[in-house]
Specification:
The complex is a heterotrimer. By secondary structure, chain B is mainly α. Helix content of chain B is 70%, strand content 0%. Chain C has a two-stranded antiparallel ribbon with strand order 1-2. Classes of the chains: A mainly alpha, B mainly alpha, C mainly alpha. Chains A and C meet through helix 1 and helix 6 of A and helix 6, helix 7 and helix 8 of C.
Chain lengths: 204, 96, 539
């Protein structure tokens, strides 16, 4: 008879992975709601969205896209390293992932800083006085990138926790499961940005 | 059914790097495509390329290619659900 | 009944805890179910009191016992508590938690600690809801929190939507837990189509919980962001569209009603065969219709919005789809009745509640068609017709199924049997009170009495007065019912492992079950509703 004794340590890695995937489906729907709003407002305010997109820093957006893609690679590679039971490589790759994550956040912080200085922030006078479409564009911009940034932070915490466990306990079924599942979360965060980038920075 | 000795596919560093290169290339393509004005098709094209990139991340980085059929189906269903609610809201917004 | 190792009451899990700690730190799904039982029933009773206060106010024209601000806060809280703290979590958190692992032959859910965490999230959400009663006062927006009022109301809207957000997280984590449990811990010999229908219903519900709840989480998050940062996302003066809020809100809240009803239907599908001594009619049809309801029910949300200002095309499309979603529900009603037909009926309190369910849910469902049809909807939207409709389906439906489940599984959970006579009296009081309480509301609504109004025109007074009387009868019945159940914990006769003649796995283990659910490996029958042995035992 199958079961989970709380004192038992045998791990059903596939089950834990399934649980994580289902959680990721819920995250897709969470951001999905914001994409619903974006889709509607894009069609309502197309010219303002185009203008808004032009006001965003394309190179910052592109660089952030590249940063996240690379971090996704290092994350996936760290899973390979775990599976091959090469602890050191895994830690290096996890460290790199965290580094790129931090870089992304820093970049975003600078970007937001510029916008705020320019008077573009939620409920700012210039947005309130300007075209309504621009207000909506930047409202969505801040909300979506903000929520996304929050997920980057959470992802980094989870990955960091996993890396710490690997450092302390080495490679095992449990630490491998931890790394693999935090990786899944991280890839989702990357996937969301893959859509955010063109929708905000490349609107034509 | 739980199986503790499941076959877990190990992606080589080489193959993962190849996927990264493809993703970076597609990023370049999408930036370039945005400079060409094809009207309302720009958004569709950007979303198409983004979807391809996202599939690469899902299939290879997230190993979805090597997961169960059930998981793949539920992933698609989730996306379809999202697609449908976005689509359906246009019954309202497009015809006001 | 095995007394060798004692029940889960005597054996905490994890074993190292004792006393209060063995409850507050438990990871045993059965104990967690009981934690939920006490907290959920407490919230139900609180919201019920709010409900009866509302009806007392409405019994007479003019101000009766409260001013309009209090009235607005009461119907808001009544809705928030009933929906987010009772009807949505109720059956999955209590019966799903207790029975799902047992139904599939497992020792617990897949993520036991996450399960306990879900309960703590539930309690945290509840605590925040209580906090909203103070300082600026509870919200007065209705449980739907429509913009723009929810953004400008000076009451504790932020606290309440945060509470609902946290409750949503609890709901989602439970859904994840249950789905993983079914996939990974189902007994090897139990194929998908050998799972009990209650397990199926909890499984289908869990998918809706996982996929739909995030949308309301986001919606409430946006309310918070708007209240604190004022981005103007729904402000027409700054480009926003308030109707989009309604779309987002109902994209969850309509599937939510299927979260409410699917597990309830699962309970009915368990009770009816047992007391008909007959296999469920159309097992596969019921499974498929559950999935069909989950899917189709996600596509009809805007039938709450016909008068909102959305396009006529949308009104047409959503109305059409609403008619479609009624079909799988009807399939189930036919299946239950066909199950009873030519069966050997044994009347018991659970069956009584189940029969009330079938009747009340059908009436509620049919009135849903009146609302779903765009034309009549214009006439009855935001009237008491709506109030009666959703109380018929959510209370006459889910509520009665909940009561039925309590009476069906009470002996299994607590090892004690309640008094049948008192149970019948309480059930009759509830049913009769219910009918006299809500049917006048259909008529009042059709006659034009709006909902959420503190006062009304004098010609509506008779109906409201009658409804109030019905309400008191109902509340008396409910109080008697709970009294009867809880008194049995001390005075009730000890219950057998199988007091009813059931065929699903919970009846093959002791009442209450041992901590790991089964003393020895459970025998998986070829079909979960095979009553041939029951016949031999009870005839």
């Amino acid at each position: 008879m199958k079961g989970r004794d709380t004192m038992e340590t045998h791990t059903d890695a596939a089950g834990i992975k399934l649980g994580m995937w289902i959680f990721l489906f819920s995250e897709i729907m969470l951001f999905g709601g914001l994409f619903v709003l974006y889709a509607v407002y894009l069609t309502t305010f197309t010219p303002d969205f185009v203008a808004g997109g032009k006001q965003l820093d394309l190179s910052a957006g592109a660089i952030n896209t590249i940063i996240l893609l690379i971090s996704s690679f290092t994350m996936a590679a760290s899973v390979t390293a775990m599976r091959r039971e090469t602890k050191k490589k895994a830690l290096v790759l996890l460290g790199l992932t965290l580094f790129f994550g931090a870089l992304f956040l820093f970049n975003k912080y600078v970007e937001w800083g510029h916008k705020i200085e320019a008077g573009i922030y939620p409920n700012s006078p210039s947005l309130a006085a300007g075209p309504p479409g621009a207000n909506i564009f930047f409202a969505l911009y801040y909300i979506i990138t903000g929520l996304h940034g929050l997920h980057v932070i959470i992802g980094m915490i989870v990955i960091g926790f996993g890396a710490a466990k690997v450092a302390m306990r080495g490679v095992s079924t449990r630490t491998h499961t931890l790394v693999e599942n935090s990786g899944l979360y991280w890839h989702l965060v990357d996937m969301i940005w893959i859509f955010v980038f063109p929708l905000f920075y490349l609107v034509i | 059914m739980a199986s503790h000795l499941e076959e877990t596919h190990i992606s080589s560093y080489k193959s993962l790097f190849g996927v990264l290169l493809a993703l970076l290339a597609l990023t370049g393509v999408t930036v370039f495509a945005s400079t060409i004005d094809i009207g309302s098709w720009n958004v569709a094209l950007a979303l198409l390329i983004a979807s391809v990139k996202a599939s690469f991340v899902a299939l290879f980085f997230m190993h979805l290619k090597y997961e169960s059929r059930f998981l793949k189906i539920m992933f698609i269903i989730t996306l379809m659900f999202l697609g449908i609610i976005i689509g359906f809201i246009f019954w309202d917004v497009s015809f006001r | 009944m095995s007394t060798h190792h004692g029940s889960f009451f005597e054996n905490p899990s994890p074993a190292r805890f004792t006393g209060v700690g063995s409850w507050l730190l438990t990871t045993d799904h059965k104990r967690i179910a009981i934690l939920y039982l006490y907290s959920i029933v407490s919230w139900f009773i609180l919201a019920m009191i709010m409900g009866i206060l509302i009806r007392v106010e409405l019994m007479f024209v003019g101000e009766t016992i409260m001013g309009s601000q209090t009235y607005n806060a009461l119907f808001t809280l009544h809705g928030v508590i009933m929906i987010f703290l009772f009807v949505i979590p109720g059956i999955p958190a209590i019966f799903g938690n207790f029975l799902l692992p047992i139904h599939i032959g497992a020792a617990d859910v897949f993520f036991p600690k996450l399960n306990l965490f879900s309960w703590y999230l539930y309690m945290a959400g509840g605590a925040l809801a209580i906090a909203s009663l103070f300082s600026n006062g509870p919200p007065d927006t209705g449980w739907t929190f429509y913009v723009p009022f929810s953004l400008s109301s000076q009451t504790n809207v932020s606290l309440t939507v945060t509470a609902a957000f946290i409750l949503g997280m609890s709901s989602m984590l439970t859904g994840i837990n249950f789905i993983t449990t079914v996939h990974r811990l189902k007994a090897p010999k139990m194929g998908w189509f050998k799972m009990p229908l209650f397990a199926w219903s909890v499984y289908a519900t869990s998918w809706v919980q996982v996929l739909a709840t995030p949308i309301i989480s986001l919606t409430f998050l946006l309310v918070l962001i708007e209240r604190f940062f004022g981005t103007g996302l729904f402000d027409p003066n700054r480009g926003g569209d308030p109707i989009l809020y309604q779309h987002l809100f109902w994209m969850y809240s309509h599937p939510a009603v299927y979260i409410m009803i699917l597990p309830a239907m699962g309970i009915i599908s368990e009770i009816i065969p047992v007391f008909s001594r007959k296999s469920i009619f159309g097992y596969k049809a019921i499974v498929i219709s559950s999935l069909a309801i989950a899917i189709a029910g996600s596509l009809v949300w805007a039938h709450h919005m016909y008068t909102s200002g959305m396009s006529d095309v949308a009104v047409f499309v959503f109305s059409l789809l609403t008619f479609v979603v009624a079909i799988p529900s009807a399939v189930k009603v036919f299946s239950w009745i066909a199950t009873m037909h030519k069966g050997s009926i044994l009347m018991t309190p659970p069956l009584f509640f189940a029969l009330c369910f079938i009747y009340l849910f059908s009436v509620g469902g049919l009135t849903g068609l009146v609302l779903g049809a765009a034309g009549p909807n214009i006439h009855v939207h935001d009237t008491h017709f709506v109030v009666a409709h959703f109380h018929f389906v959510m209370f006459g439906g889910t509520g009665f199924a909940f009561f039925g489940g309590l009476h069906f599984w009470w002996p299994k959970i607590f090892g004690r049997m309640y008094r049948f006579k008192t149970a019948y009296i309480s059930a009759v009081l509830i049913a009769v009170g219910f009918v006299f309480h809500y049917i006048p509301m259909f008529i009042l609504g059709l006659s034009g009495m709006p909902r959420r109004y503190h006062d009304y025109l004098p010609r509506f007074e008779t109906g409201n007065f009658l409804a109030g009387i019905g309400g008191f009868v109902m509340v008396a019945g409910i109080s008697l019912m709970f009294f009867n159940l809880f008194v049995s914990l001390k005075n009730g006769e000890k219950a057998a492992a199988d007091p009813w003649g059931g065929t699903t796995l919970e009846w093959s283990t002791a009442s209450p079950p041992p901590v790991h659910n089964f003393e020895s490996k459970p025998e998986i029958k070829s079909y979960p509703y095979d009553f041939s042995d029951v016949y031999k035992k009870f005839n």
